[in-house]
Amino acid sequence: MLPLLCAWTLAFFQAHPAARQSSTASQWDTEIQAFERADRANPPEPGGILFTGSSSIRLWTSLADHVPGLPVLNRGFGGSQIHEVTALADRVVLPYAPAVVLLYGGTNDIFLGRPAPQVVDDFKAFVARIHRTLPGTRIAFISIAPNPARWSLRPQFEQVNAAVGAWAAGAPLVDYIDVATPMLGGDGRPRPDIFADDQLHMNEKGYGIWKTVMGEYLARVAAGAPMHAAGDGDWTPLWNGKDLSGWQQVGPGRFVVEDGMLRTEGGMGLLWYTPRRIGDAVLRIVFKPEKPKSNSGIFIRIPEAPTEPWRPVHTGYEVQIYGSGDDHHTAGVLYSFTRAKARPVRPGEWNTMEITLDGPRTLVHLNGTLVTDFTEGQPVAEASKGDPARGPRPLTGYIGLQNHGKDDVVWFRDIAVRELRTKQESPAPIPSSGPPRPPR
Question: Is the CB of residue 23 less than 8 Å from the CB of residue 13?
């Protein structure tokens, strides 16, 4: 009878993964009950900042001191895994109605044999669970931290971090916080002076690193600034998330700043970035079209400071934002010049576009999928009536965002640039007689 019961139990949990997750989560019930007793004795105010996850959060006993003046709550427990936090969300997250949730997890998950892609999916499930009840709560994934005790698992940790970071860049109200990079020494290995004797958990010096990174992140949240730049390597924000400083509108319509986003209104106009020309760099723009036919564009390689919206159409390139249209007029193509290699745009959702300006070559990736790969001098589609003038574009130029018309609503956020090379490494320019003249 016992072997039959064991076989039935195994089959049940394989067929019902949610039950298996709840079963493993139940081991932390004593800690959760302690939280609930503390809440009854001293109920926390809603709308605060909640940290949850595994023991690196649980052991951060100085958390409140590290983020003074903010309503911080620590609900880390045990050596938990992400799917266990999700299973217990209605006890450790949702009752507090937090404005911001910071989750640390993944290291125990990988150590106990959970595949990296499953850990990524577990985090997405956590986000979905929280947003189903609290759609306005911002959620941050604290990157899996390197440590000497589990250094052999570094490839899996980095796989999770990279996948979550890429997904968070295009997901609404989801952020990625890089604590891993500042925890590495000059030799690329974990700094030995920031860990406790077990070489797994941090000492106060290690938590001091987290204090700095989390403090910067929470300051950006409070300021309504773009989130992707929190500990995000060499990316430099081009928009501050608060106003139009450094940008100038030409032509009809405008861009409206609301809730840390830019929204198009009316048109046709162009909002261009005034401080400098951009080339030999990667642009990253996160945008959301209201509907499939919401029309907009990202202008690149504009040779001169725009004074009206039409000349850039004929002297630069427009990277199209449009969910409909044929393969020469859809999201991610150089408008009317190139043909889409794929059509990965998601109308009504946040999309991440990366535009690589590598000398004369332009690549466009949309939601991680290559749409355009074009080098100056390659054949292009023949121009139809009303299409931009043909001819070479400069290696560097101004950039801008298009507001197309009153029925074309598109939101933008997280506009940033990452340089590809130093000026000394730049390729030789393409011989050119200058930008084409617009047709009369």
Answer: yes
Which neighbouring-strand residues pair with 251? none
Residues 173-206: b if buried by 16+ CB within 10 A, e if exposed: bbbbbbbbeebeeeeeebbeebbeeeebbbeeeb
Q: pLDDT tens digits, residue range 273-287?
A: 999 999 999 999 999
Which parts of the chain have pLDDT scores under 50? 1-23, 225-233, 422-440
Q: Give the dihedral sign, CA 108/55/176/199.
A: negative
Q: Which residues lie across from 249 on neighbouring strands?
A: 271
Which CATH number applies to 16-223: 2.60.120.260, 3.40.50.1110, 3.80.30.20, 3.30.565.10? 3.40.50.1110
For domain 236-425, give the fold. Jelly Rolls (2.60.120)
Backbone phi, psi, residue 174, to 5°: -130, 135
The angle, 0 to 180 degrees and rounded to 10, between the axes of the packed helices 2-15 and 17-25 is 110
Q: Domain spans of the chain?
A: 16-223, 236-425
244/271 Cα distance (integer angstroms): 9
What lies within 8 Å, CB to CB, of 64 at 6+ separation is 72, 74
Give per-residue pLDDT as tens, 27-44. Answer: 888 999 999 999 999 998
How far apart are the C-alpha atoms of 234 and 236, rounded to whole Å? 6
- Distance of alpha carbon 65 from its chain centroid, rounded? 29
How many Cβ atoms sit within 10 Å of the Cβ of residue 221? 19
Q: Is there a common fold for 16-223 and 236-425?
A: no
Decide: pTM greater than 0.70.
no
Lookup: tokens for 48: 């605060």
Cis, bond preceding 268 (omega within 30 deg of 0): yes
